[in-house]
UniProtKB/TrEMBL annotation:
Gene field: LOC107931271
Upper taxonomic lineage: Eukaryota, Viridiplantae, Streptophyta, Embryophyta, Tracheophyta
Keyword presence, Transport: yes
Source organism: Gossypium hirsutum
GO CC annotation, single: cytoplasm
GO molecular function, one term: cysteine-type endopeptidase activity
Entry-linked Pfam families: Peptidase_C54
Name the UniProt record assigns to this protein: Cysteine protease
Key words of the record: Autophagy, Cytoplasm, Hydrolase, Protease, Protein transport, Thiol protease, Transport
Function: Cysteine protease that plays a key role in autophagy by mediating both proteolytic activation and delipidation of ATG8 family proteins. The protease activity is required for proteolytic activation of ATG8 family proteins: cleaves the C-terminal amino acid of ATG8 proteins to reveal a C-terminal glycine. Exposure of the glycine at the C-terminus is essential for ATG8 proteins conjugation to phosphatidylethanolamine (PE) and insertion to membranes, which is necessary for autophagy. In addition to the protease activity, also mediates delipidation of PE-conjugated ATG8 proteins.
Length: 488
């Protein structure tokens, strides 16, 4: 989409070599897309993947065979063990922390209210031991840990015609988007008040949702099917994409699944509307929620049988150059107060996370940068182990440290819910001092583009012409830096 461009700054692999039974996500960066070929950073990710593969294959050989080949292996593959030690030890973690900043775990010392996907938790009296505040803090933790976590997986069937059986080091944007869509399904089928029960058997709807995000072609919303649906937007196994391409890929996948099934058997029982700027963003400008377009999406989803259906709104944004312009931060914070809020696909440059809550200047997130063994749950196993789909560790980062390329999600259950969303969004735009995240209009005829590109003007540059939201590597003069790379 012209007007939406992404970053491809860095690569960062998960620093964990062993996997605990409960996920403990780490930090990481991903390689940026470079059209049909991998960037130099992707080559480095393949380098590490190959190193691990050789090491693991060697480790699985019998002890007697290992003794016979010890000398030869030491000479020819000794570097493999060295790489393994660097990445799985503390060295890579220290590199992460130096570049991205140390991980912040828990809840900050602030006593301000916490907003988590439209719900407010008042903990202002926590320091004085107020019973209600203590209860609110416990309720927040339970709510956070009930959100569905999707992380890197290893050991699944190869994606398409590739030999790729893990999305480690490249799939964080896909995993983040899976989390957001999974929350939409959770809200639709079980309601916002649902919490993961402490005892089995689980809710059938909950298990069915997890099953749909399994890592195989038979699961509707698997990474396999996402890659296939997003080919026209730059998705490819082994390469990283930005928020805009990811949103369009979900629109494409939802359309294909809708055509495969009867209306009564829709796996994603909601219309998908990717909110873009004037003329689909070709002239830049703030995205516009067009009520006519939303109604048309619902009408088409229902196959012309209903004027309105549940609808998933995906709003890709670019809110600055190197970092989010401070003018947009109050509006970003306010979106978490919307009852329709599904959170944000965003994170540090090249390292996507799923942001679910905010407290003052910090945002809480679920981190996909942890490699776990593949788990494909059957749709009716109410006794399944779902621990790898949740996380009790609360992580947060400063809001102003987010990459300016991100996407916001909203879920509207019915027409009244959508009308309420439009009212809140219009009010937010009116109070934005001329810097709205997006606007609302009844029809296309009243669109008035509001350029997010004030940051581009400040930099003395023009917005790049980019139809799929990818910013090519190069300097302001258009010179390609093919030899520049970073290993984070």
């Amino acid at each position: 989409m012209k007007g939406f461009h992404e970053r491809n700054d860095s690569l960062n692999c998960s620093s964990k070599a062993s996997i605990d039974s409960s996920p403990t996500p780490g930090t990481g960066s991903e390689p940026g897309p470079n059209d049909s070929k991998f960037s130099k950073t992707s080559l480095w990710s393949n380098f590490f993947a190959s190193a691990f593969s050789v090491f693991d294959t060697y480790s699985e050989s019998s002890s007697s065979s290992a003794c016979e080949k010890k000398s030869s292996f030491s000479k020819t593959n000794g570097w493999t063990a060295a790489v393994k030690r660097v990445v799985s030890g503390g060295s890579m973690r220290r590199i992460h922390e130096r570049v991205l900043g140390p991980s912040k775990i828990g809840i900050s010392s602030s006593t301000s209210d916490i907003w988590l996907l439209g719900l407010c938790y008042k903990i202002s009296q926590e320091s004085s031991g107020d019973v209600d505040a203590t209860s609110a803090l416990a309720a927040f933790k339970q709510d956070f840990s009930s959100r569905i976590l999707m992380t890197y997986r290893k050991g699944f069937d190869a994606i398409g015609e590739t030999k790729i059986t893990s999305d480690a080091c490249w799939g964080c944007m896909l995993r983040s988007s899976q989390m957001l869509v999974a929350q939409a399904l959770l809200f639709h089928r079980l309601g916002r008040s649902w919490r993961k029960p402490s005892q089995k058997p689980f809710d059938l709807a909950y298990i069915e949702i997890l099953h749909q995000f399994g890592d195989s072609e038979t699961s509707a919303f698997s990474i396999h099917n996402l890659v296939e649906a997003g080919k026209n937007y730059g998705l490819a196994a082994g390469s990283w994409v930005g928020p805009y391409a990811m949103c369009r890929s979900w629109e494409s996948l939802a359309r294909s699944k809708r055509e495969e099934n009867d209306l009564e058997c829709q796996l994603l029982p909601m219309a998908v509307y990717v909110v873009s700027g004037d003329e689909d963003g070709e002239r830049g400008g703030a995205p516009v929620v067009c009520i006519e377009d939303a109604s048309r999406h619902c009408f088409e989803f229902s196959r012309h049988q209903a004027d309105w259906t549940p609808i998933l709104l995906l709003v890709p944004l670019v809110l600055g150059l190197d970092k989010v312009n401070p003018r947009y931060i109050p509006s970003l914070q306010a979106t978490f107060t919307f009852p329709q809020c599904l959170g944000i696909l965003g994170g540090k440059p090249g390292a996507s996370t799923y942001i679910v809550g905010v407290q003052e200047e910090n945002v809480f997130y679920l981190d996909p940068h942890d490699v776990q063994p593949v788990v494909n749950l059957s749709s009716d196993n109410l006794e399944a182990d779902t621990s790898s789909y949740h996380c009790d560790i609360i992580r947060y980062i400063p809001l102003d440290s987010l990459d300016p390329s991100l996407a916001i999600g909203f879920f509207c259950r019915d027409k009244d819910d959508f009308d309420d969303f439009c009212f809140r969004a219009s009010k937010l735009a009116d109070e934005s001092n001329g810097a709205p995240l997006f606007t609302v209009a009844q029809t296309h005829s009243v669109f008035k583009p509001i350029i997010h590109g004030d940051t581009m003007a400040d930099a003395g540059g023009d917005r790049m012409d980019d139809s799929i939201g990818v910013l090519p590597t190069g300097d302001v003069d258009g010179n390609s830096h093919e030899d520049d790379w970073q290993l984070l």
